[in-house]
Amino acid sequence: QVQLVESGGGVVHTGGSLRLSCEYSGSIFSNAIMRWYRQAPGKQREVVAIILSSGSTNYPDSVKGRFTISRNNRENMVYLQMNGLKPEDTAVYYCNAMETGRTYWGQGTQVTVSS
Q1: Residues 96-114: pLDDT tens digits?
Q2: How far apart are CA 91 and CA 51, in angstroms?
Q3: Which residues are paired to 6 by β-bridges?
Q4: Residues 6 or more apart whose Cβ sits within 8 Å of residue 63
Q5: Is 84 helix (H, G, I), strand (E, B) or coil?
């Protein structure tokens, strides 16, 4: 059973930075496709970053150039570096793993960007 535990959320001012971490356990991390999602109040959950087992990454236009996803396959960790944060980035951020056809979610971590 895969488990994901996020950390690193908090409150920052506009233009600030945060680094989210997600610890993966329970299966072979290097095989997993990892994503970060976010969900703001009253809005649908949306993907903000994806990293394949190869290390290839992709981002939506809303965060491209500001967010960077990375992974450490030795430590079973995935990270989301968020720079130039804006109030519209305020949301609960979730770590997501897809491995052997199954999808797993973390519990989420709150990110609040004050104007």
Answers
A1: 999 988 999 999 999 999 9
A2: 20
A3: 22
A4: 48, 49, 82, 89
A5: coil
What is the C-alpha separation between 12 and 23, in angstroms, rounded?
23
Show the tokens assigned to 17.
């930075």
Structure tokens at 33: 């496709």
Task: Tell me the pLDDT band of 28, cut-offs 50, 70 and 90.
Answer: confident
C-alpha–C-alpha distance, residues 45 and 33, integer Å: 18
Query: Could you tell me the two tokens for 9?
Result: 């959320």
| Pair 47, 70: CB distance under 8 Å | no
Contact between 113 and 105 (Cβ < 8 Å): no
Q: How many CB atoms lie within 10 A of CB 15?
A: 10
Distance (Å, whole) CA 49 – CA 83: 14
